[in-house]
Amino acid sequence: MSKAIQNEGYLFKQVYDYVMHRIERKEWNEHDKLPSVRQLAADMNVHRLTVLKAYKLLKQDGKVYVKDKSGYYVQTSMKENNDFENIQYVSANVQKKHLSDINQVPVSYHFSQALIDPNLLPNHYFSDYVKKVFDLYPKVLATYSTVQGDEELRESLTHYFINQYKTHLHADDLLITSGSQQAIHLLSQAFIKPRDTVLFERPSYSAAIDIFRAQGANIITVDIHPDGYDLEQVESYMKRYKPRLFYLNPTFHNPTGYTVPADQRKKLVELAEQYRCLLIEDDAYHDIYFKETPPPPIYTYDTVGTVIYIRSFCKYISPGLRIATVICHSSVLKSLLSMKSLADNGSPLLNQKIFLHYFSSLRMQQHLEKLRIALQIRKEIMEEELAATNWQWTSPHGGLNLWIKLPDHFSSELLLTKSIQQSISFVPGQLCDPLNQLSSWIRLSYSYVNEKQLREGVRRFVDVAGCLSPPESC
Ligand SMILES: Cc1ncc(COP(=O)(O)O)c(C=O)c1O
C-alpha cells in the first residue's frame, strides 16, 4: 500500500473517531446537525473527500443519518432491546426535576431532606477542634492536602475499619473525597463511557441516577425488597448484559431503609467476581442504626478487589466538612486519583484535620449513641402520625427515611405541588426511580425537623393528601 493511501486511511479514521468522540461526550446530541463536509474538512485540515468517507461510514454504522440536501445528523443512540422480559433501558438524559430543586424550596416542614437536624449535630465542639487544629498545624491553610488525602486521617480511618471489621487494610488503599457524592461522580467518570450498561437498585439514590445518566450510562434496574435482591435476577442480568458495575446502597438504603442480609452480600461478591462486574457499595448510613448493628459491608467479603467501598461521614458528623472515604483496589485507585486531581487536587486539608481530631475522640461515640436514640424517636413520631392512614411502608431499623406506598390513584407529583402550598416538602417516588415511574410512592425523611414540627407537619401532610382522595373531597 502506498504511503499516500495509508495516510488517507489514517486521516479518515481520525475524522470518524473525532465525530464519535463528540457524540459520545454528548457535545453533539441526538438529531443535532453535524458540521458540513466543507466545514469539518477546513476545521480538521483534511480533504473534503476524507470527511465524506468518514460520514458515509458513520451512516453505514448507524451513528448518523442524512436528511435530503440538508446534511448529516446524529442518530438516536440506543435501539431498544425488548427481547428480554422485564428489562427496561433508560435513556441517558438527566431527569428534568432534581432533588436539589425540591430541597431549595423554602418550606417550614422539610421532609425532603435526608439530612440530620443541625441541632442534633456536634456544632459547638467543632470550634474547639478548629482551634486545636490551628495550634497543631499553624500552616494548615497555607498548603494543599495530597490528592489521596491526609495521611494521618487515612491512617486513623484504616485503624477504625480494621477494628470494626477485622479485615486487612492499608492506608494506601484509601482515598479521601469531598463527600460520597464526589466519590460517585469520580467513579462514573473513571469507569463509564456513553452507552455502557450499569446495574442500579430500584428505587435508588436520586443524585447517583443523575450522575450516571449524565455520563451517558444505560441503566438496568434490580428491585430492592425488605429482604434484599432477587439474586437469580441479578445473575441473569450480569450474565446477559455484562454491566460494567452495580451501584448499590445495601445498608439502610436510601430511599427505602432496607438492608441486604449478610448471606446475600457474600453471594453478591461471588457473582460480581464471576461476571467481572464492579460493585460500588455506597454506605452513607451504616452507623445510623437504632438497635442492632447492620451486617458488615459487602467489601469485607471481597478478596480480589471487585468491590469499591464508599463510606461517608457527612450525615452524622458534619455535612459541611464533606468528608468521605473510598476503599478500593490499587488499579481502581489509580484511575480515581487522576480524576480526583483533575476535580480539585485534593479535599481541603483543614476539613480533613478537623474531622480527624473529632472522629478519633470519645465525644464522637457519645454523640452517635445519643443521635441514634433521637432519630429513632423521630421515626416513631412520624409512624404514629401516619398510623391513621392506609398507606404502607416497612419500618426501617436505621437510616433517615420512610419509603411509603400511597394508594394507586395518588400522583406524588400532584401531592408535592399541593404540599408545597402548605409549606411541606417530600420526595416523589419518580425521582428515586431510574425508570422514572413509581408515582404513587414517596420518601419522607424524619430526621431533619424537630419533634414538635414533625408531628405538626405530618398531620398537615396527611390532611393535604386527604384532600386528594377522592379529588373532590376538599
Ligand atoms: C445513598 C447516598 N449516597 C451519597 C449521598 C451523598 O452524601 P455526601 O454528603 O457524603 O456527599 C447521600 C446523601 O443523601 C446518600 O443518601
Automatic annotation (TrEMBL):
Keywords: Aminotransferase, DNA-binding, Pyridoxal phosphate, Transcription, Transcription regulation, Transferase
SUPFAM superfamilies: PLP-dependent transferases (SSF53383), Winged helix' DNA-binding domain (SSF46785)
Any one Pfam family match given in the protein's UniProt record, by short name: GntR
Keyword Transcription regulation: yes
Signal peptide: none
InterPro entries according to UniProt: Aminotransferase_I/II_large (IPR004839), HTH_trans_reg/aminotransferase (IPR051446), PyrdxlP-dep_Trfase (IPR015424), PyrdxlP-dep_Trfase_major (IPR015421), PyrdxlP-dep_Trfase_small (IPR015422), Tscrpt_reg_HTH_GntR (IPR000524), WH-like_DNA-bd_sf (IPR036388), WH_DNA-bd_sf (IPR036390)
Domain HTH gntR-type per the UniProt entry, residue ranges: 9-77
Cofactor(s), by name: pyridoxal 5'-phosphate
Gene Ontology molecular-function annotations: DNA binding; DNA-binding transcription factor activity; pyridoxal phosphate binding; transaminase activity
SMART domains (UniProt xref): HTH_GNTR
Family label: Belongs to the class-I pyridoxal-phosphate-dependent aminotransferase family.
The protein's assembly and partners: Homodimer.
Name of this protein: GntR family transcriptional regulator
Lineage summary: Bacteria, Bacillati, Bacillota, Bacilli, Bacillales
